[in-house]
Structure formats: C-alpha cells, structure tokens
Automatic annotation (TrEMBL):
<dbReference type="InterPro" id="IPR000644">
    <property type="entry name" value="CBS_dom"/>
</dbReference>
<feature type="domain" description="CBS">
    <location>
        <begin position="80"/>
        <end position="135"/>
    </location>
</feature>
<keyword id="KW-0677">Repeat</keyword>
<dbReference type="Pfam" id="PF00571">
    <property type="entry name" value="CBS"/>
</dbReference>
<dbReference type="InterPro" id="IPR051462">
    <property type="entry name" value="CBS_domain-containing"/>
</dbReference>
<dbReference type="InterPro" id="IPR046342">
    <property type="entry name" value="CBS_dom_sf"/>
</dbReference>
<feature type="domain" description="CBS">
    <location>
        <begin position="13"/>
        <end position="72"/>
    </location>
</feature>
<keyword id="KW-0129">CBS domain</keyword>
<protein>
    <submittedName>
        <fullName>CBS domain-containing protein</fullName>
    </submittedName>
</protein>
<dbReference type="InterPro" id="IPR044729">
    <property type="entry name" value="CBS_bac"/>
</dbReference>
Amino acid sequence: MPNKAPTIVREIMSRDCYRVNGKTSVSTLAEGLALHRLPGVPVVDERDHLIGFISEQDVMGKVLESSYLNDEPPLVRELMRNEVLSVAPNKSITDLAQEMLGAKPKVYPVVEQGRLVGIVTRRDVLSALLRMRHA
C-alpha cells in the first residue's frame, strides 16, 4: 500500500527545531545557523512562546562590524524582527505554498496556541507538493 501524501503542515514540519531566546549572543546564533544549515530561526521566551525571528541577513553585518571593532556581539533581542509570519500546524500545504509565492521568508515558525511547535521550510513544502503530485 503506498504512503499517503502529506496534506497539512503538521505532517511535514520539523518538530525538534533549533530556536534561540532574546538573550542569545549573535555569535552563538551565527554558529547555530551554520551548524543547522538554516537561513533563520524563531526566537522564543522561556515558555516557548514565539516572540520574534532572526535571519542570517539580520546578523551578518553586525557580526562583521563587531569583529572589526573588537566589540561584544549584540544579543538576538537587539536585532530580531518582532513581526513574524507563522503558520498553524493544521494549515493546508497547498494554501501555504500559495502564500509562499508572495512572501519572502524561507522558514516559517509553526505555532499552536502561541507556542512554537516546529518549523517548516520552503524545501519541506516543495517536497510535499511533489509527493502529493505523485500520490
């Protein structure tokens, strides 16, 4: 019996995802982004409530600047974006794909009752669309 193709975000999201808090240093964040090969990550509070998002692009200039000036790197909370595009775990993959055509983020936090429950990437959605097509 063939595997059923995924239809909602919950079926394709990464549950155990890299995340940071506002007190994380930008240099620690940069190391984590490189290690996990992510273009950006959700920022959460101590209860895993989504409070922001920070990307490679947000931090690249600051890391460069602090290395030139021998300054302490700034904290994530100083650079994160507070307005975050997030999705619900029960959102249709095809609806999300349509939204992604006009939106910039490559990584979307998946939020349920205000708490981060995972992330979904454009690559995850594209792979799911291909599986749906061949199902």
